[in-house]
Design goal:
The chain is α/β, with parallel strands linked by helices and 282 residues long. Helices cover 41% and strands 13% of the residues. It has an eight-stranded parallel β-barrel, surrounded by six helices. The termini are far apart. The relative contact order is 0.11. Bound molecules: 3-methyl-2-oxobutanoic acid. The site of 3-methyl-2-oxobutanoic acid has 11 residues, from loops.
């Protein structure tokens, strides 16, 4: 008997091995089991991102996302994803006070979800924490450039790396977290020359969002690229579908049918065998 073909999970080591590869890493966010099941067939990495605050919970930013939220959705994604590497965001306010607080949160998320690794926002200022976590077997992807957990402090979502001092500071961030043991870098909202220079300078893979094609991989918020979030589409998002429009049309059709009493019809009704046979025969 032929063995069913197995697709082993993509590991952190597999992601690392793709550094500089001609095949960029394909990454998307995932928060639920049904969506993760679809994305899993196409992606190298799925991120249970704290963008879930806006994408699913109607929050204004990522700051209200809690460990309980991220863990519940992380478990759902882990149940569905069979081949992609799954990373989970460490939520705002649960790691910044020091390496020990970070380890407590990180080990809880890893332990309760069984995910493959975590993503933490921060560069040089977070290097000590990254070192502490990686020394304790927690794989960390560091998130530099535009950091959504800092938007309130920074006064909004601004593209990074335009000024030379900022470009230099981003390079210092990248090198510091690499030296601290980060296995990868997520670079957000950063100008192309800086993302390119960082990607060339580090030996770990870079995954960009609004950070050009120079990165080793790309990630988008799935709800953005599927056209499910319609209020604001950032410049870097390409919409590959208009699911908000598709859902709107489907729900309008359902509402019409219910109001006209044409749904449910015989085919969708239990215990009405005679009527069904008559309709099958016609
Ligand atoms: O939370 C998130 O979705 C992110 C994106 C920038 C990928 O971190």
């Amino acid at each position: 008997m032929t063995e069913p073909q197995k697709h082993p999970r993509t590991t952190i080591a597999d992601l690392r091995a793709r550094k500089g590869s001609a095949q960029p890493l394909v990454c998307l966010t995932a928060y639920t089991a049904p969506m993760a099941k679809i994305l899993d067939a196409h992606c190298d990495m799925l991120l249970v991102g704290d963008s879930i605050g806006m994408a699913l919970y109607g929050m204004e930013n990522t700051l209200g996302v809690t460990p309980e939220i991220i863990i519940a959705h992380g478990k759902a994604v882990m149940r569905a994803a069979k081949r992609a590497c799954v990373l989970i965001d460490v939520p705002y306010g649960t790691y910044e006070s020091g390496p020990e607080q970070a380890y407590e949160t990180a080990s809880r998320i890893m332990g309760e979800t069984g995910c493959d690794g975590l993503k933490i926002e921060g560069g040089a200022e977070m290097a000590e924490t990254v070192l502490y976590l990686t020394a304790r077997n927690i794989p960390v992807m560091a998130h530099i450039g535009l950091k959504p957990q800092s938007v309130v402090k920074d006064g909004g979502y601004k593209v990074r790396g335009k000024a030379p001092e900022e470009a230099e500071s981003l390079m210092r961030d990248a090198l510091a977290v690499q030296a601290a043991g980060a296995f990868g870098l997520l670079i957000e909202g950063t100008v192309e020359p800086v993302a390119r220079a960082i990607t060339q300078a580090v030996s770990i893979p870079t995954v960009g969002i609004g950070a050009s094609a120079a990165c080793d991989g790309q990630i988008l918020v799935t709800e953005d690229m599927l056209g499910l979030i319609t209020e604001h589409t950032p410049k870097f998002v390409r919409q590959y579908a208009d699911l908000a429009g598709t859902v709107d049309e489907a729900v309008a059709a359902y509402a019409r049918d219910v109001r006209a009493r044409v749904f449910p019809d015989v085919a969708h009704t239990y215990g009405n065998g005679a009527a069904k046979k008559a309709s099958d025969a016609s």
